[in-house]
Amino acid sequence: MAERSITLEVFRYRPDKEQEPTFQSYTVPYREDWVVLDALNYLKDQVDGSLSYRWSCRMGVCGSCGMMVNGTPRLTCAAFLKDYYPGPVRVEPLANFPVERDLIVNLDDFMQKLKSVKPWIVRDQEQPISEGEYRQSPAELANYKQFSMCINCMLCYAACPVYGLEPEFLGPAAIALAHRYNLDSRDQGQSLRKDVVFGHEAIWQCTFVSECSVVCPKDVDPAGAIQQEKVAGALDLVKSVLMPWGSR
Amino acid sequence: MALVHDVLIIGGGGAGLRAAIAAVEADPKLDVAIVSKVYPMRSHTVAAEGGTAAVIKENDSLEEHIKDTISGADWLADQDVVELFVKTAPSELIQVEHWGCPWSREPDGRVAVRPFGGMRIERTWFAADKTGFHLLHSLFQTSLKYDAIKRYDEWFATKLLVENGRCQGVTALELRSGLMQPILAKAVVLCTGGGGRIFPFTTNGAIKTGDGMALAYRAGVPLKDMEFVQYHPTGLPGTGILITEAARGEGGILVNKNGYRYLQDYALGKPLDVHDPKHPQLRTMELGPRDKLSQCFMKEREKGNTIPGPYGDVVHLDIRHLGEKKIDKKIPFVRELSKNYAGIDPVYEPIPVRPVVHYMMGGVHTDIEAATPLAGLYAAGECACVSVNGANRLGSNSLTELLVFGARAGRSAAAFAKEHAKLDTSALEIQAKDEQERIRKNFIAKMDGKERIATLTAEMRTAMESGAGIYREEASLKATCDKIAELKNRFKGITLDDHSNTYNTELTTALELENMLEIAETVAHSALQRKESRGSHQRTDHPKRDDEKFLAHSLAYQTDGPPRVEYKDVVITRWPPAERKYGDS
């Protein structure tokens, strides 16, 4: 039996050499249990060592290998060739990000946005380590757990039509992480995150298309997080009008 | 103008982030930087699943954790280090709890623990079965609150800069620009993880290429106990993706082709029915240590009791009796991975598994303060060997280790930096120029090579598995040593398709292979010279443990030829060497 194959159309861009990106077509062996990342690794190892992309864990948890596969943001370690057979499979860098080279995008913007939401536990008073752990009931844990599952893979930003038009938009993953800490019973930092999360460039920009939640490989539901923050933000607004000197 | 910091940490995984936070907390005025070849949240700590061990429950004691760790290590652990490790573990885990790690909880809100292999009492804290992921992201996100921590994300360290007998920085390649720069520092901490990628079949991600070990080794620092490589008994065939030990901690069983729980034939105790309330029994059967369970698989295969599959023989990990609800609550990632990568739903079918290279007990030699013999250089985490794990690491001790010794390394480096303000800047810059020229000449500008990186890598991996796998003997080890020497020679004739600057990932792959060849050679030679069987190092030609000659750590030093292997006594304090016994609970 002749070995089956599949065609990959891969986005190429080498800023040292080329003015414009191009698509390069490669034929790779087709294997039932291969993911798109396996095909890329085959190309890099055997055919063209100059193809550049990020990857590491190949088990869907490090968040490195997000790309557009036939126009949809996917983790390429979890996108099976069999779902695209007989092809061709178009592989591009994540949409909405500046491209550095080939399939590698620039993440500076997200890294700044992540820091801006203060994604850490804020306490008025630290409990000394000697007094042990903060108590947190399973129900309190369940409250935020889903929003702590974000692997920062950026698929949600690539899917977000608002981020595509308004790069200032804080975006799904960063808001979901802010929400994660706001919901954590150990945290007291919600008021510190307010300006960023309730600000003009954040939750109010979202038009609730929910594409972010559709593409999220970890079921984080950033759209849900944004909706919940909108409710909190609206309440906060009402409170500030009704009780201008009120507590928190 | 060189970049200069007080403390420079190489590697942004669990150990590196913990070290950075410890250094700035030791003195908020210190300028601390992390160089990492990937964004910190991509580091392989992210893939750890089952949990992290520390004594916190009333039914547990420090003494029991110490004894489990020492016997698990087949007495090759330094007992003063183990004692410190076990005593420090609870406060380190509480610290990351305070930093937001979403530990799974008891109904009363206290942290929950689960049983794990080789542990007499359940003491493994967990965040469902994504413990490493949550730990890494908690540390990373917490690190963002310290403005004194500067990061060099996607910079690849190529060389340690050593002058006047002191490590004073590194040269590093900025992947985005392709520029090589010296980054100078008063103290340097290596936290670069292990090197499982020297083997063909591993749970380790692509980035785990032993970079820090190779950097230290080339700078004259010995690599300790490199012959001890842990095979985890339950990897998915083909990909090598890890199915966590927590699957067995929660009650999963291992069966051969006849549906028989074969571990009972290998001095690991007697099985209880899976519905017996006492199942699973600690330190018994499926909760035996990883080295022994992987060795049992090999013996079953020899007997013809394993199940042939497209990627070699397997046995079955059966968790069906746990039921869908428990599986989804306690080990949901096991289900997700099995469905995605083995095409089976473990709620209804057993999971095919086989032993897979998982962890290196060996690494950069450090003392109890995480200091290497080279002044100003510290190391922690999997890249280091502080001698907690000896000849076999117990599951859930490694995340604890990277916290305890990551923090210690950060504090040690901070103290050293404050006492050594002066840097030999001009000499270091000359060294950095030489290194830049070496990279240019040997890789970027080199046009006459013919060896492909992928070919050499594949040959190295095959040689490591055939000679330095679960069972070893002199002839095949010698063949592996020869093969690695040949590959190191052929590496000089390497060819690159990519001669550009921006994100030249072929160049970094070549540098990673250079590092892997270095450490592979130390693994093979240390294994060849250890003529005994202990823990994960099993010699069919020397099947017994030999405390007379080998109750000692190996230290591999770089020479012009093969590594020179010396030995250093194990520190024994209160727990004299004894026979390792399991299945007696």
Characteristic terms for this protein:
A: 248 residues; alpha+beta; Ubiquitin-like (UB roll); Fumarate Reductase Iron-sulfur Protein, Chain B, domain 2; five-stranded mixed β-sheet; 9 helices; 7 strands; 13% strand; B: alpha/beta; Flavocytochrome C3, Chain A, domain 1; Methane Monooxygenase Hydroxylase, Chain G, domain 1; 15 helices
Silhouette of chain B: globular
Mean pLDDT of chain B: 97
Low-confidence segments of chain A: none
**Structure class of chain A:** alpha+beta
So what's the CATH class of the largest domain in chain A? Mainly Alpha
**Helix share of residues of chain B?**
25-40%
Instruction: Tell me which CATH architecture of the domain at 430-550 in chain B applies here.
Output: Up-down Bundle
CATH homology-level superfamily of the largest domain in chain A: Alpha-helical ferredoxin
Predict the CATH topology of the largest domain in chain A: Fumarate Reductase Iron-sulfur Protein, Chain B, domain 2
Report the end-to-end length of chain B measured between terminal Cα atoms.
63 Å
Percentage beta strand of chain B: 15-25%
- Order of SSEs of chain A: EEHEEEEEHHHHHHHH
Report the sheet with the most strands of chain A, covering strand number, pairing sense and barrel closure: 5 strands, mixed
CATH architecture of the largest domain in chain A: Orthogonal Bundle
Oligomer: heterodimer
The number of helical elements of chain B comes to 15
Main beta sheet of chain B: strand number and arrangement? 7 strands, mixed
Instruction: Please give the number of β-strands of chain A.
Output: 7
Strand content of chain A: 5-15%
Total number of domains of chain A: 2
> What gross morphology of chain A would you assign?
elongated
